[in-house]
């Protein structure tokens, strides 16, 4: 089996289809979220697409750090500032959006944060892995493979903290 056979390869075109199908699943379930809560960074793309498809303009972001590299994680996921104001979430129906529920620990942290403050919370992800501690209400595809997302498969144009140098095309 080649390395590509061992991975899910999500393209931008397929991502667009996945988000529409996720949104349709939410709509078919008659769930009408007041807020789409994105888990940054991968969930930003999912939340934006769901927000448009479900006609939800109230989007919030939570920054959570867990993965530090391929297969490398912190001991526990950590919320990074700014943390959403719980008053903004109070008594609202919230749809948490992320790209993948791998271990599910990040999603659990966000769900637990929301649980005491919101009317209802559900989760939507592109991919869910079998070992996830959270079983999401809305999943486009289940897999146990590593996923190549179109936004993270290529290396950064410039690494954070590096000096800015113009590209050859800009000269």
From TrEMBL:
Domain Phosphoribosyltransferase: 15-153
Listed InterPro entries: PRTase-like (IPR029057), PRTase_dom (IPR000836)
A molecular-function term among this protein's GO annotations: glycosyltransferase activity
Name of this protein: Phosphoribosyltransferase
Pfam families reported for this sequence: Pribosyltran
Highest taxon of the lineage: Bacteria
Keywords: Glycosyltransferase, Transferase
Membrane-spanning residues: none
């Amino acid at each position: 089996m080649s390395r590509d056979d061992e991975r899910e390869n999500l393209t931008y075109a397929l991502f667009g289809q996945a988000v529409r199908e996720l949104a349709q699943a939410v709509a078919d379930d008659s769930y009408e979220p007041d807020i789409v809560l994105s888990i940054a960074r991968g969930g930003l793309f999912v939340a934006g697409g769901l927000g448009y498809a479900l006609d939800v303009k109230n989007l919030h972001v939570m920054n959570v750090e867990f993965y530090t590299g391929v297969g490398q994680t912190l001991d526990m996921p950590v919320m990074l500032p700014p943390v959403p104001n719980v008053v903004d979430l109070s008594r609202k129906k919230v749809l948490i959006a992320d790209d993948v529920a791998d271990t599910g620990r990040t999603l659990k942290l966000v769900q637990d944060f929301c649980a005491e403050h919101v009317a209802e919370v559900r989760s939507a992800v592109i991919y869910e892995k079998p070992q996830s501690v959270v079983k999401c209400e809305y999943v486009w595809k289940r897999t146990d493979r590593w996923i190549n997302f179109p936004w993270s498969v290529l290396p950064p144009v410039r690494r954070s903290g590096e000096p800015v140098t113009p590209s050859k095309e800009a000269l």
